[in-house]
Amino acid sequence: MSEKPGADGEAGAVVGLRAPDGGRARLVVAARLLITPRDVGEVAGRLQAMVAGLGRGPSAAPVVAARYLSPPARERLAAAGIGYADATGNLLLSLERPGLFLRDVGATSDPWRRRGRPSGTLSGPNTARLVRALADFTPPYTVARLAELAGVSVATAYRLAEVLLRDDLIGRAPRAPITRVDWRAIIERWGEDVGTTQAERMTLYLEPRGIPELLTNLRRSRQRYVITGSIGARYFDEAVPPRLAVIYADPVEPLIAELGLRPSPAGNVLVGLPVDDVAFARSQVMGGLQVAAPSQVALDLLGGPGRGPTEAALLLDWMERNPGAWRTQG
Question: Would you call the peptide bond into 140 cis, given omega within 30 degrees of 0 as the criterion?
Fold first, then answer.
């Protein structure tokens, strides 16, 4: 059955459910065309107040309905105890009494997004530069200054800032500087959206004498390179186990020849040219080796094979504990 909501019209309906055993429940539904992660706190507060306002009777659960709900929006709704449904098939509905649990996955991007509007993903050109700048430099700074720090156009920075602002990953008032950056969530979002793109461009080589010999030879190299991956992460946090040496080089061939590496499917060294030159930005000499910045290492671990994402989480934990060791004022 359907009832009028007992609040200020925020909910589209109160829907009654009846189980075969006679148990009853109510769904308090708020229907909106678009709900962004920034909207979740407000919507959740209103719905929960409406649930409380229904008074005695069958148990009631809040639910949001929208044309499309992005993955970050769905995560926040679930964390707030709010069910959801969208027109692409994304669904979460949970009731204790009567017992009910429904979950399904629909689209992961908005099929109704207007041409020319931000895609909502971090996989576009120059995105890695902006992600690195947002992580490495502490706010406040204007979007124009962010573009300068990242080495991209102001238009590109504004497009990404719109996506991140909508998903509540940065904070800024209208026409004001960025004052808050959720850098860890941005890095993790980049890992979800971009995945293994970089790893697919690299070649596996074998150093038969092991990683220590590789590092000894690298210390004598005059080529342009940085180490990253689990070996790079270990220079910041010893909790990350050394597993695979990942090296960016530009150019690649002289470094391979100098190190005497040979291609092998059972190799222990990944070498390749980075997708973007930003991989070399803000690297530092540690233990006589050129080591990529921790934000770059985290990005590479998230997009790497095997246990890379688990190792990325360890490094990100270290970065959260030690922001002064790697972030600078923008």
Answer: yes
Same domain, 216 and 322: yes
Answer yes or no: do 304 and 207 share one domain.
yes
Write down the residue that tokens 């009853």 correspond to: 24
3-state helix, strand, coil in the chain (%, to 5): 40, 25, 40
Judgement on whether residues 171 and 292 belong to the same structural domain of the protein: no
Residues 181 and 206 in one domain: no
| Residue 136 DSSP SS3 | helix
Q: What is the pLDDT of residue 1?
A: 40
What letter does residue 296 receive in the DSSP assignment?
H
State pTM to two decimals.
0.71
Q: Are residues 221 and 300 in the same domain?
A: yes
H/E stretch holding 262:
strand 262-263
Whole-angstrom Cα distance, residue 90 to residue 63? 12
Query: How is residue 114 written in tokens?
Result: 């207007």
- pLDDT mean over 206-213: 92
The CATH number covering residue 312 comes to 3.30.460
Helices and strands (DSSP H and E) totals, the chain = 11, 18
Looking from the CA of 278 toward its CB, the CA atoms found within 13 Å total 25
Highest mean pLDDT out of 62-76, 220-234, 300-314: 220-234
Last residue of a domain, one of 89, 104, 119: 104
Distances (CA, A) of 202 to 88, 94, 213, 267: 36, 44, 21, 12
Is the separation of the CB atoms in 38 and 73 below 8 Å? no
What range does the domain containing 305 cover?
Answer: 199-329
Mean pLDDT of the chain: 85
| Chosen domain end from 43, 70, 104 | 104
Token pair of 317 as six digits: 């934990």
